[in-house]
Amino acid sequence: MQRLLAACLLFCAPWLASAAALEELKLLNEQPVSGVSGGNLSGLAWCDGALWAVSDRDDQQLYRLESDASQWQASAETFVAPPAPDAALPWGLRMRNWAAGQVRGGELDFEGVSCDAAGNRYLVSEAHAAVLQLPVIGEPNWLKLPPSLVRQARASGMLLHFNSLLEGIAVDPAGERLYLAAERMRRGLLVVHKQRSTWRCTGGCVLFSEAGTAPAPEQLGAEEQPRDFSGLAFHNEKLFTLERQAHRICRRSLSTAEVERCWSFAAEALTPERLYPPSYGLAEALWVDQDGAWVGVDNGRFSRADGESRPIIWRLSAPKDGWGSKP
């Protein structure tokens, strides 16, 4: 028995070491964002040579961000979304979503944005478990996602709880593969494929789901936190997940969504001057490119320790050996 235990520890030692000490991503710069409603920045995407942001409090506008030396300035692009489709969520959950939208604003509750190579933008609505497309040519339209998407997600334990529905979106450059992140309790990743003009679940919509908790960064001195996803990005035929409670970015397989490698940004994000009141000021938005990652912080009207009351965008460097496929 002792020999078996020793062999197991020897085999697992490299994995345990890498899990305990992830490579820390370097913060290249941080800039506050002026002009986003209520400070609720919930999604980021680089489209047509510019960084775009979405707020979960705005149902009719997307923000183009322009940077100077000290800040990002948001300019609103308005649109009119048609009535949202029925996502087959239970009546009680739909009513709680509706009531929350009436109280805080943002009935559609846009939680993420992505774009394809043609310049079409895609916004995910948490309240309706739906995706709005803003095409380059034509009017905004809701994608006709397969009814089995929500049904399969709920059967896997996802999309069961209020304020724990779809939190991230990523589209491949061709606009033919659409990935969605379920936030928490359980968290998971979903995929649909476009075949001609129809979106389908090819071999099942659910790539991955899991429950449980994970250790919080040592800087917080907190107990384990529920596993969650708050952002999703597609880069170089890989999925990248933003895991806000763990303060890390993970690369995942497109076919299984299993984690391949993770990088931490806790050392840069959790310095004393950047801390917010508990449960606020969390990383909500992610975009990954060859040179690094954009991470957006939703401050929800709260100020951090240094007094900054606007949402923040961090530009993190790429890992030392890049984002590539090395295990």
TrEMBL record:
Keywords, alphabetical? Signal
Taxonomy, superkingdom: Bacteria
The residue range of the signal peptide is 1-19
List the InterPro entries: Phytase-like_dom
- UniProt keyword Signal, yes or no: yes
Specify the Phytase-like domain's residue ranges: 39-185
Is Thylakoid there in the keyword field?
A: no
Descriptive protein name: Esterase-like activity of phytase
Question: Which organism is this entry from?
Answer: Pseudomonas guineae
